[in-house]
Amino acid sequence: MPALADVIRRYGPAYIERFGDRMPPSHRRAMRDLAACRTAALGGQLTRCDHCGDERYVYHSCRNRSCPACHGSETQHWASARRAELLPVPYYHVVFTLPKELRGTVRSHQRKLLSALGTAAAHSLIQLAADPRYAGGRIGLLSVLHTWTRDLAYHPHVHCLVPGGALTRDGRQWVPTRATFLVPIRALSVLFRARFMGLARKALPAERFPESIWKTSWVVYCKPTVQGVAKVVDYLARYVHRIAITDSRLVSAEDGTVTFRYKDAEAQRWRTTTLPATEFLRRFLQHVLPRGFHKVRYYGLLSPAYRQTLRQVHLVLSPGRPDTGSGIRSPGCTSEDALPSAPDRAPYKCTSCHAGVLLVIAWIPRLIRAPP
Questions:
Q1: Is the Cβ–Cβ distance between 94 and 222 less than 8 Å?
Q2: What does DSSP assign to residue 177?
Q3: Phi, psi of 245 (to 5 degrees)
Q4: φ and ψ at 226, to 5 degrees?
Q5: CA nearest to 79, candidates 287, 230, 289, 270
Q6: Mutual orientation of helices 72-84 and 229-237 as an angle, nearest 10°?
Q7: Is 126 in contact with 135 (CB distance < 8 Å)?
Q8: 3-state DSSP call for residue 216?
Q9: Contacts of range 273-280, beta carbons closer than 8 Å, 24 or more positions apart
């Protein structure tokens, strides 16, 4: 099966020749980095097995955040860090989705409107939850931006992970939410729509938005994490350091077309689709975010400004746990594993004899100039 890098190497030059003058810098950078990933262009090392003497080249990865072949260890470390911060309370999974009438405008103004999407979702949820009829205090949430569907269509939405409780305004009491209810969805949808449009009009005063967006209900999903909050964290982690598609879903790339697998959400079965290579690259690149854009954000009690307050909430909700002052810990963890450390890299085993370890004996310089 081909990898995404193989598709870009084969069909990328023709795509750039056709659309290069309209491509944003982030798209050009992603194509360049992915095409060079784990090739001699980025340099690497020459290794030798200390048992059988077999020698082989190991090339560097591109580490572009859109590359499906990179960031395996970073993904695991991010998920471990988030699991260590979980409060011993029920959690809610909330998803805010923009209507299809706005997708073209958002795609043309990603930096401004995707930022407005995250801010509007968080602020509307925090505002509604502060009502005494619901949570009645300050909540916290982790939000992760997604812009794709399973078949790579453009579909901007935000996933939010919200603890089931709030801190009172005086900061002295933790108030749990009802068992299966956080806030009313219809009211949240209306508030989210008003918040987003206010931010969008402020960011793009000359833009004309369709009037139909005020006549339809904006989709907001809110359910308890009955499948387990750790599974939601793992799902979000898969797309923190990569986007849209993995190499394992690619079936073939030949005769100017690319075939890949995707899961039909309604039928709950895997399907395949074949696209012209140009269309496949267009669909993939539209999910590459502008350089420096943060797709993961923390609001309310989970924001860095409330780090000390949140640690105190941990202590209140988990009585009897020692306070080492080393940071936030999940219930039952010891002081040594309160905050996960960077994973140790195990030595590479030789794939020829399966007994020795590969040792670096030479460095290979990169063939292309590093970006400034």
A1: yes
A2: P
A3: -145, 150
A4: -65, -25
A5: 230
A6: 150
A7: no
A8: coil
A9: 273/151, 277/7, 277/10, 277/11, 277/14, 277/15, 277/253, 278/11, 278/14, 278/15, 278/18, 280/7, 280/152
| Euclidean distance between CA atoms 140 and 304, whole angstroms | 11
**Two tokens, residue 284:** 């993939």
* Residue that the structure tokens 């097995």 belong to: 49
Range name among 86-90, 153-157, 275-279, 358-362 with the lowest pLDDT average: 358-362
Q: For residues 214 and 194, give the distance between their C-alpha atoms in angstroms, rounded to a whole number.
A: 9
Residue 232: DSSP 8-state: H
Spell out the domain ranges in the chain.
Answer: 72-244+287-319
pLDDT tens-digit map of 267-324: 889 999 999 999 999 999 999 999 999 999 999 999 999 888 888 888 888 765 544 3
Hey, what amino acid is at 340? Answer: P
* Nearest Cα to Cα of residue 190 among 158, 209, 216: 216
Structure tokens at 55: 């020698």
**Dihedral sign for Cα atoms in the order 248, 250, 251, 253:** negative
CB-neighbour burial class of residue 226 (10 A; exposed 0-12, middle 13-18, buried 19+): exposed
- What pTM was estimated for this model as a whole? 0.84
